[in-house]
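Box 3.1. Reading complex inputs
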Amino acid sequence: MPVISAELVRSGGMPAAEELTGRLLSGHTLLRDTPEHLVEVVDVLASYGEVLDAYSINLIYQAEKQFLNPFPVFKYFDGDLNLARLWRHLNHDRINFEYAEYCMKAMLWHGTGGLDAYLDSPAFLDHCRRIIARKRRRDPLLALLDPLAPSFLPELIRTAATVHALGQFWRVMSDLFLDLATAERQGRVRSIADVVAFIQQGLVAAAAQPITYGVEVAGEHCWVLPPEAGLTFLVDVAVPYVEAVFLRGMPFFGTVSFNAQAQQISPDQARFTYGALYADPLPTMGAGIPPSLLMQDMYRHLPERLHQMYRQCSRGEGDVHVKICQSFQKSMFCVTNAAINGTMPHPLEAPDPAHQAANRAYAEAWAARLSVARTDCLDEALPPVLD
Amino acid sequence: MTSLPLLSLLLAVPFLGCLGLLLWPGSPSPNQLRGGAIATLVLQLLVSLLVLLVFDSSLSGLQLRESHGWLPGIGLDYRLGVDGLSLPLVLINAALSLVAVVCTREFSRRPRVYFALLLLISGAVNGAFLADNLLLFFLFYELELIPLWLLISIWGGANRAYAATKFLLFTAVSGMLILGAFLGLALLTGTVDFSLTPVSSERLAMGSQLWLLGALLVGFGIKMPLVPFHTWLPDAHTQASTPVSVLLAGVLLKLGTYGLLRFGLGLFPEAWARLAPALAIWAAVSVVFGSLAAIAQRDMKKMVAYSSVGHMGYVLLAAAAATPVALLGAQFQMVSHGLISALLFLLVGIVYRKTGTRDLDVLHGLLNPQRGLPLTGSLMILGVMASAGLPGMAGFIAEFLVFRGSLNAYPLATLLSMVGSGLTAVYFLLLVNRAFFGRLAITPPQDPLRHARLDVLLPPVAPRETLPAIALAAAVVVMGLLPQQTLGDLSEATTTAMADLPVMVAVLQPGGLG
């Protein structure tokens, strides 16, 4: 039998569900609180914040300025079309806005939460009809398409609404993550526990922020997501986003057929585990699909401190995308940690046994879901240097 | 320039280099010793290229001959010469010896002796290829055994003692059979002149010729090796270090094929023609057996070793057919197999050094671009494609010539060998699929399910580690794409040399064997 040296193989020690439950109920963070983890999480979130800023601007631009455009060829240019930018785009010196669309499609497809419920409501269809009727007057192509495929244009509007909602959600998250980096630089955030608390406060502060969306059609302002729909940031967009992108995700297109034939894809969407928290950081044939495009975008904005840390470990620049993915997963566990803490049924220190039991049940449900995610990163430092 | 004793220089350079390393005063560092060995082998390569430059491919027979009496009483003379059969092998010996020293990374134990032995082997192999005297050939043939035995038994793997002893026993028997055949030839022809040209066996009865040829066939068959004398090779390869495997597969096995063509075919043409149908079947059996055995392996190195058993069968097939095209194919096969097998062993060595295992049940996904061995994997894919005889690479030219030249003479054996060529693709695709494709993982054999999600941290491969493999891969591709430009002169020289063989004279006459 071959002898495999121990330093080559790291056992992916996954914390058990009980361990995760214990951490949630005791008020400890899911991610081990170390100075190295703090740098990883804060800097990777700073990078993520920059990327989300670009995604958010573009999504809102698409939803407002490319509304019902059947051929949105220049949708990634944010209205700033010039030769230099076109060259950079063709040369792939740009942000991968395709990843933002992937997330939007995941939200639209999984369809959980208040936003989806509203998109299927009669009120939304009324708005759609009004918008389409106005738009048809000046657009012969839409005039032709609408009678031929009556549900096509409402579906495009549903997509545009999700695009805009995601753009609004990321606007908040981008600012939150960039503020976190500033707070850490100023010494107001000194630990992983501080990070989780900071994010929790940010989510709570934005929780009730209304999500609305309107477009200009033929000189008239028309609502797609009107204020009276009562959609809010946390419940109607943030939670569905976490469910669709962090947890469920979608199987990679190229593997769908093979995996489906092998009966490896659950017929129940709710049991999907293709989200970012389950993604295999190695970009080949893993069970989860690494958000490779996002890793490329984050690499463009990587803070020098974290970049330097990456250079000094494992394969240095050679596997930097894998390391970004691992750090990103650590940071996403912090965000999830903050969301769980913020939505815990009762305060952790509640003396009432019934409250404690409810908290335990809530924590156990989350722990069961997370215990099959990439929780092996929670206790691990960056890999050592090998030569 | 031709007044220089170039062939003697080809012996003197490595032998003096070996002596220089052993007598290097003080305590030179391993890197200094390695540098000395590299300098010696670069010089040897330059002299080999000089020989190529002054070699006239339009002339038949041995060229640049050097002759000095040594022990005339027993027929041992210092006679050297080079022709189209030996020149490519001299060149490949110089190149692969250099590759073996360059790719040596682990020299913490007795580096002085290690590098000296490598130079000794290189010089001895040159001597065997250049010898124009049967006894001189035998001396050099035997001279390379001891250093190789030492290299396996001192710097080999955990089971090195067993492998080295087995190697020594097999090759000692090989040497005895060859010596017995040479002495028998002298005894039966009543001469003590062991120079190549005067030896004429046609005076012997067919029965005697068959016995002597049989001894040579078994002797060189062990060295090549051919089934069923092959069992020493997989053990030797798996226990030998990477540089030794490179030399063993790339150069030392060629002593067997060279001996078979030079002495078996050259000295006993009539007996050879009598045995040729059986030899063709033997070749086909060796090819198919080697390929099937390779399929069953889970050790990458053993798989490559068994592929050598199969690929050496092509040379025997071509020699059995003995048509000009087939013999040219045999020569190409020796060169291309030397390069391809050296490339594959180099790459397996890198995989073993980085992962600690060569087990195909353990390794997965090594082609991973970020955490795997992507360049090594890419070169491995190129190497196995070349070994499987895909067009555009050296293996294709060699196999095509062998099959084209042998098909009319022995259609069944050739078709079976073609099946063996197809099986090469099977086992090498298994190797690539298991070890290089899929999710990167090293699954320990103990309880693989429990360790199904392992994060593998492989050390990166430095560019200098893959440089020799890149050079070999480039040679394999260039030879495959431009065979006429790269080996054109050599092929002409080979054809000329082959035409000189008595059996070829018979073949080329109307109504000949082919």
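In summary: The longest strand of chain B covers residues 63-71.
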